Amino acid sequence: MNTAEPLVMGIESSCDETGIGIVRGTELLTNTVSSSMAEHVRFGGVIPEIASRAHLEAFVPAVRAALHDAGVTLDQLDAIAVTSGPGLAGALMVGVAAAKALAVATGKPLYAINHLVAHVGVGLLDDRGELPDGLGALLVSGGHTEILAVPDITSDVRLLGATIDDAAGEAYDKVARLLGLSYPGGPAIDKAAKDGDPTAFAFPRGLTAGKYMGSAENPGPHRYDMSFSGLKTAVARVVEAFDAADQPVPVADVAASFQESVVDVIARKTVLACTEHGITTLLMGGGVAANSRLREVVTARCGEHGIPVVIPPLSLCTDNGAMVAALGSRLVAQGRQPTGISFTADPGLPVSTVSVPAA
Amino acid sequence: MLSLDSSSIASVALSRDGEVLSRFDTVDTRSHAEALAPAVHDLMAEAGLTGTDLDAVLVGTGPGPFTGLRAGLVTGRTLGFAWALPVHGVCSLDAAAFHVAPEALAAGHAEFVVVTDARRKELYRRDYRVHEDELGPVITPLGDPRVGPPEDVPALPCYGSGAGLYPDRLSHAVPGFSDLHPSAADLARAAWAITSRGQELSTDTSPLYLRDSDAKVPASPKRATR
After folding, report:
1. How many angstroms separate the CA atoms of A5 and B2, rounded?
2. What is the 3-state composition of chain B as percent helix, strand, coil, each rounded to the nearest 5?
3. Where in chain B is the domain with CATH 3.30.420.40?
4. How many CA atoms lie within 13 A of A187 on its CB side?
5. Which of A138, A157, B178, B217 has a CA between 20 and 30 Å from the CA of residue B136?
C-alpha cells in the first residue's frame, strides 16, 4: 500500500447527501455529491426515511461517477473510509453497508470515521496539506452545532461545547416556516435579514446567563454550550402577536433579530472557548458556515483576539465524501489500523472517537 | 451465484445451478448492516472463491422492514458493481413460497399464501399457485406482494414466519412454519426454478417497500401562545 500519498475513497451518508470523494494524499481528485434536499422541501426539514431511500438509489451511480471523474479504478485504491456516525441511523446504515461491500469486493482496508472530525479533515485539503497548531473548529449545520478543540486530528479531538437542543440550522428551518420563508431556512433568513433591523426585537441569547456561564476558573455547566429552542419559541410568540393583532409580520426585522441572536451566541461562545483553550486558528464547517452574517461576526470577533478563521469553499463545508477521504488518507499515512467490516453504524458516535477501532 | 436476503433475517448463500453450496443465516432480524458483509467475506473465503468466479449476484427485494432491506440491496448492488456482475432481484416472499411448495403440494394446497412480519401489527403477504412439472415444484405468484392487517390475508392456507403472530386474527395458519423466513438459500433455489425452465431473472432490484415514509407535510406550526 502507498502510505505516503494514499489513494482513498470517502463515503458519506449521515444525512441527506450521498457523498463520494477521492483523494490522493492531501490532493482532492473528486467530490461527487448527490443530494435529496429537493425531496425534503415540502416537509420543511429532512425526513430520515426519504433520505435513506435516496441514498440506496444514489450510491452506485455516485461511486461510478466519482471513479470516472477522478480517473481511477477501485483496484487502485489504497483504502476506503466511511462515515459511521454521528448522524441519522437509517441513512448511515446505507453508506456503511455499501462501504463494507466495497471493502469485501476489493479487499481494501476500511476505516469507519467520525463525521464531525471529517468536517475538520477538510482543512487537510488546502495547499499546505497540514493543519495548523492550536486548531479549533466550529461546526454549524442543520444537524450539528459544535465547538471542537483539535490538538491532533487522528488521535486527540475534544468537544468543548454543543447545542443542548436544536442545531442552529434546524432553528433557521423552523423560524423560516414561522415567517413563511422557504426551505432550507438558512439562506432564506440570511437574505430576508439584509433588509431588517437586527435590534428591532430583543430575542433571548440562550445559555448566556451567569449561572450557565460561570467563570474561566470556575466554569458553569454550559459555558460553551448553546440552545436555540427557546429562541424559536420567542420568535413564534412575536409572530403570533402580530397575527392576533391582525397586523402584518415585519419579516425582515424578525429575521434580522433572530439571526443576530443565533450569530451572537455562537460567536460569543466560540471566542470564549478559543481563548480559554489555547485555540489560535478556527476552522468553520457545516452548511450554516455559508451564512454571511455568521461568517462576518465570527471572523470579526475572533480577529479581535488574533485568531484567524478558515472557511473552506461551500462544497467542502456541507456534507461530502471528500472530507471523509481526507481524514481516511491521514489515518492511512499515520499507519493507523483499519476498522475492518464488523463494526456497526453509531448515530451517537462521540467526537473523541476519530475512527472506530477494529473489533 | 451469490445470493443475499435481508427482508426478515439476514442471509447469504453460494449456489451453483440451484444447488446451495454454503449458507449463512442470522437468527435475529435486526443486524443486517453488521452481518452481511462479513458473511459474504467468510463464505467466499471458505469456498476459495473471488468475485471473478461468480456469474451473478441475486438479491431479495423484500417486502421487509426498510432499513434492513436496504442493507441487503445496497450490499448486493455494490458487490455487483465492484465485481462487474449482473445483479438480479426476486421478491423475497417467493423464496419462502418455493421452500414450502413440496409441503403445500403434499397437503393438497394448490393455492396458498406466504406471510411475514411487517411490524406495526401488520403482515407482508403474497398469494401463490403451486403445481409440479418434470423438474419439480413450480410456484406462480397470484398478484403483487401486499402489506396489511391480518384480517386482510385471504382465506388460503397460510405459511411463513408471520402466520402464527396473530392467532386471534388469522385462523388459517398452517402450523409448524413459524421459523420460515425468506432466506438467500431458498432465493437461489427459487431463481434456479425460473432459469432452469428457460426464463430470465429480472434485473430490477427496486425495494418492495409497500409503504410510504411516515412523514406528513406539516400544516400550520404549533402555536407557542394560547
Report:
1. 35
2. 30, 25, 45
3. 2-91+182-195
4. 6
5. B178
> Cβ–Cβ of B78/A102 closer than 8 Å?
yes
Residue A227 has pLDDT above 90, yes or no: yes
In the predicted model, is pLDDT for residue A268 greater than 80? yes
Residue in chain A lying closest to B40 (CA): A104
Q: Are A7-126+316-333 and A135-311 in the same CATH fold?
A: yes
Tell me the chain A residues in contact with residue B53 when contact means C-beta distances shorter than 8 Å.
none
CA distances from A192 to A75, A181, A258, B33 (A): 49, 9, 11, 44
Q: What topology does CATH give the domain A135-311?
A: Nucleotidyltransferase; domain 5 (3.30.420)
> pLDDT tens, A289-326?
999 999 999 999 999 999 999 999 999 999 999 999 99
Task: State the first-to-last Cα distance of chain B, in angstroms, to the nearest integer.
Answer: 64
The CATH code of domain B2-91+182-195 reads 3.30.420.40
Going from N- to C-terminal start, the domains of chain A cover: 7-126+316-333, 135-311
ipTM above 0.85, yes or no: yes
pLDDT at A72: 98
CA distance A134 to chain B (A): 37
Contact B78 A345 (CB under 8 A): no
- Which of A47, A106, A241 shows the shortest C-beta gap to B213? A47
B218 and chain A in contact, CB less than 8 A: yes
Whether the CB-CB separation of A225 and A163 falls below 8 Å is answered with yes
Alpha-carbon A148 to chain mean position: 12
- Best CA proximity match to A119, nearest among A167, A153, A168: A153
Asked whether the predicted pLDDT for residue A115 surpasses 90, the reply is yes
CB A273 within 8 A of CB A279: yes
Are the C-beta atoms of A102 and B82 separated by less than 8 Å? yes
CATH homologous superfamily for A7-126+316-333?
Answer: ATPase, nucleotide binding domain (3.30.420.40)
Q: Kindly report, residue by residue over A132-151, the tens digit of the pLDDT.
A: 999 999 999 999 999 999 99
Q: Extract the C-alpha cell encoding B223.
A: 402555536
pLDDT-derived band at B215 (thresholds 50, 70, 90) equals confident
pLDDT at residue A304, rounded to an integer: 98
Reported as a single tens digit per residue, the pLDDT across B33-46 is 789 999 999 999 99
Q: Are A168 and A140 in contact (CB under 8 A)?
A: yes
Q: What does the block give as the cell for A119? A: 468536517
Q: What is the DSSP letter of B174?
A: P
